[in-house]
Amino acid sequence: MNDPKEILRKIRRLELRTRRLVESSFAGQYQSVFKGRGMNFEEVRPYSPGDEIRSIDWNVTARTGEPYIKKFTEEREMTVMILLDVSASGNFGSVEESKREMAAEIAAILAFSAIHNNDKVGLLLFSDRVELFIPPKKGRHHILRLIREMLYFEPQGRGTDLAGALEYMNKVVTRRSLLFLVSDFLTPDFSRPLTVTAKRHDTVALRVVDPAEETLPDVGVVLLEDPETGEQIEVDTSRRSISRSYAKHAEDRLRDLGRLFGARGIDLLELHTDRDYLPVLRGFFERRGRRMAA
């Protein structure tokens, strides 16, 4: 069982690290590329030379005999939802950090970026079922709770049902939201509910990958086990035909995911546990910013 003091220390370390990254690197980029839902009416004020004629409030102008305009401000506040895969495959790690640990850290950065922008943040954890749903809220204490759940929640399921998680999301979150989908996407077909989600929400997919899932290391004969099903298979990793087939399967899967998300206008980010994820996130913000400016 995890030591509560150690859990608290880890949460605080992750909070400090992610907050520094947000304040130094991502807060401004996040604000510039993720927009609110529209415009809010603020006030009516007297017309000044240079004001847009289309902004004139004709009702007030008729009552007063003087031209007045409606002033609007951009609605910045958004609802941000993080859908985080907590299936058993996330516990895999051939390097220092497991996929779930990296996924939690990236999700924490996104959550702190949202809070820094005064947005609400919610969390949905899923395996082969919806494990936990925390409605969107604001505030540091809320974010710390999300981090705790992302790091230490013990799921009941071991498999992955992303389709079910998206269907649940589509039912309970009715307001258009910014959705970050964090997973390794080792899951059965989820294309149909994804299509609905992409129409309703601004969706970004973040795929977390371990290097051993792309290249099979040459370590002789090993027993490989699927962490979600428990299925085992003996493999001779020294055979070139097997290593080539393994790498080809990984390439095909990435290509298929790229097509799946791309056809629905969803950005797909590849994040590797043995590499620095900051350039990937920065590059995404920059690309999205250029698209919006075009």
CATH class identity of the largest domain: Alpha Beta
CATH superfamily of the largest domain: von Willebrand factor, type A domain
Q: What is the overall silhouette?
A: elongated
Give the total of domains: 2
- Report the CATH topology name of the largest domain: Rossmann fold
**Distance separating the two termini:** 52 Å
Helix and strand content put the structural class at alpha/beta
Task: Please estimate the helix content.
Answer: 40-55%
What proportion of the residues form beta strands (DSSP E)?
Answer: 15-25%
The CATH level-2 architecture of the largest domain is identified as 3-Layer(aba) Sandwich
Sheet with most strands: strand arrangement: 5-4-3-6-7-10
| Low-pLDDT residue intervals, each spanning 5 or more residues | none
